[in-house]
Design a protein that fits this description.
Strand content: under 5%
Number of helices: 1
Number of strands: 0
Distance between the termini: 93 Å
Order of helices and strands: H
Structural class: mainly alpha
Radius of gyration: 31 Å
């Protein structure tokens, strides 16, 4: 059986564990914050790409109509 810990050693070990746990929680919170930021940026980029895709589709349709009216492509 190991010898009993002194009160000073017990407090030091407890404070050490508390500091380690707090550091891990802070790191986890920081990582979560970064991930939330990245997700919000991805949502913005997705919305921007959706708008760009719609504009491209409209441009293709307009070009196709124009080429058909000029008789350059078959209907």
């Amino acid at each position: 059986m190991p010898p009993p810990l002194s009160d000073g050693t017990a407090i030091t070990v407890t404070v050490g564990w508390a500091v380690s746990i707090i550091a891990l929680l802070m790191a986890l919170a920081s990582s979560s914050g970064v991930l939330l930021y990245q997700v919000s940026e991805l949502r913005k980029e997705t919305a921007r790409l959706a708008v760009q895709q719609q504009a491209s589709e409209r441009a293709i349709i307009e070009l196709t109509v124009t080429l058909r009216t000029k008789g350059l492509i078959a209907p």
